[in-house]
Specification:
Elements: H1 5-22, H2 26-30, H3 36-61, H4 65-75, H5 82-89, H6 94-119, H7 132-156, H8 158-198, H9 201-220, H10 225-236, H11 240-251, H12 254-287
Length: about 290
Amino acid sequence: MEAAQPILVALFAITVMGSVGVDLTIDRVWVVFRRPRTLVVGLFLNHLAVPLLALGIARVCQLNEAVTVGFILCASAPGGPVGAMFTQRAKGNVAFAASLIVVMTALNTVTTPLLMGWLIDTEIGDAGASHVWPVMKTILLYLLSPLLFGMLLRYHRPQAAGIAFRWLKRTNNVIFAVFFVGMVATQWGVVGEMGSDMGVTPFVAMLVLAACCAVSGFLVAGKQRDLRVALALNTTMRNVALSLLLADIWFTNQQTIMTVMIYGLGMILVALPTTLMLRRGGVVSSSS
């Protein structure tokens, strides 16, 4: 599994961002810029407030170094592609959600390595203080390139893009399932070590952060309900593909990688009931 791990992580990141790209049009990307106030508030919340909150939670919970790195890495990588799907099911503004994902992913190229260098004490890989450019190149290669390629395919060959979207979605689901099962099977001792060292504290910390993301996104987005729903769910869903990629390439500690995977499951556990509550709230408000 350890030999195949970097390949699976890279393929997962590429297929996830490729599937986002082939589902986007230029018009949908520009939607976010028509809501400048919500955009600025959303970017400030996701790229600064959430990472700082994660750092505070990690210190209060006294998480160990490897777990803290994975925890803050997830917090520093917004723009989870699944956020648009949850937004649609909760009857939020899907176009705003999709374009917000693209903008946050592009900003991650700069903000994620800068935040990681600022918020954590450990060096990133062997790069030390010069980590920013190598991490930027990693994000450009594995995330932004497939995203832009997918958008170009959608623009020039929309029918082919539709076929590619279906296959890419299936592929990244299979890759993640294989990777998760393989990691649990081969690295179960890592989870046991985390549990024996800190009990349920890391898992509670992840759920608390995800819940705070959902609540804060809903509260700061203004009065328009569909935008509040979109920001709540897209603040909750972090970019696990990016987090896994950076954890595998630049940190390599199995506890850090496992923390990212567990956080990915934790944020979904928070997003599912949040989506149901927001959906019911939308039905009630529309029928009243």
